[in-house]
Amino acid sequence: QSVLTQPPSVSAAPGQKVTISCSGSSSNIGNNYVSWYQQLPGTAPKLLIYENNKRPSGIPDRFSGSKSGTSATLGITGLQTGDEADYYCGTWDNSLSGWVFGGGTKLAVL
Amino acid sequence: QVQLGESGGGVVQPGRSLRLSCAASGFTFSSYGMQWVRQAPGKGLEWVAVISYDGRNAYYADSVKGRFTVSRDNSKNTLYLHMNSLRAEDTAVYYCVKDSKKNVGYFDYWGQGTLVTVSS
């Protein structure tokens, strides 16, 4: 059972938009930045969004992040088959004095 | 460019020890916190440990506290994970991760991982 809650899977058609939620509490998301990571099949994770809504260089603006209260959301527009991956949210937890990840969401582009 | 190369993985019997290493290059190693994250086969990401830029502070997941120790040698640009009393549930790919800050920020670069299998 992960400290951060994500839906196990989401799906959408190519070109469409999808959102992935990440729910936490005041000890983690509520008081810390959230980051998002993309893990393509068979590869190491990669930073996708940091500090709630910032994109590293090289990440297209089809990817966006937002945070409200104790929840965060990753948005992906103009879906491509190459976006099929597992997506994880993460943040520091002040009560645990440790980093916590969501359980991951598998995106299918049908 | 930032490069992180893990080594030291392999098959180990339950109860034994193993040391993982991570060679870093392409950035000022001594200026950033470093992390270990693991992923059991077919499972999600699990944070393991973080060590501050100067090695003075470290934090651990409850699942490894008291058994694993993270350390670093800034003169060698190398991060370590000493794993003792290994259990079957420690079987995972272990990723070395660069933090964005001196202590804890976000994970901006990941290594390719090294597989640890705990089995008799």
Q: Return the average pLDDT of chain A rounded to an integer.
A: 97
Give start-end ranges of low-pLDDT stretches of chain B: none
Helical/strand content category of chain B: mainly beta
- Number of helix segments of chain B? 0
Q: What overall form of chain B do the CA principal axes indicate?
A: globular
Rounded to an integer in angstroms, the radius of gyration calculated over CA atoms of chain A is: 13 Å
Considering DSSP H and I runs of 4 or more, what fraction of the residues of chain B is helical?
A: under 10%
Low-pLDDT runs of chain A: none
Rg on CA atoms of chain B, Å: 13 Å
Beta-strand level of the residues of chain B, as a percent range? over 45%
- Major sheet of chain A: 6 strands, mixed
Total number of beta strands of chain A: 9
Could you explain the architecture of this structure?
The complex is a heterodimer of chains A (110) and B (120). By secondary structure, chain A is an all-beta fold. Helices cover 0% and strands 45% of the residues of chain A. Chain A has no helices and nine strands. The radius of gyration of chain A is 13 Å and the shape is globular. Chain B has 120 residues and is an all-beta fold. In chain B, the strands form two sheets. In chain B, strands 2, 4, 5, 6, 9, 10 and 11 form a seven-stranded mixed beta sheet that branches. A four-stranded antiparallel beta sheet of chain B has the order 1-3-8-7, with no helix packed on it. The mean pLDDT of chain B is 97. Chains A and B meet through strand 3, strand 7 and strand 8 of A and strand 5 and strand 10 of B.
Layout of strands and helices, then pairs:
The complex is a heterodimer of chains A (110) and B (120).
Chain A: E1 9-12, E2 18-23, E3 35-39, E4 46-49, E5 63-68, E6 71-76, E7 85-93, E8 98-101, E9 105-109
Parallel strand pairs in A: 1-9
Antiparallel strand pairs in A: 2-6, 3-4, 3-7, 5-6, 7-8, 7-9
Chain B: E1 3-7, E2 10-12, E3 18-25, E4 34-39, E5 45-51, E6 58-60, E7 68-73, E8 78-83, E9 92-99, E10 107-110, E11 114-118
Parallel strand pairs in B: 2-11
Antiparallel strand pairs in B: 1-3, 3-8, 4-5, 4-9, 5-6, 7-8, 9-10, 9-11
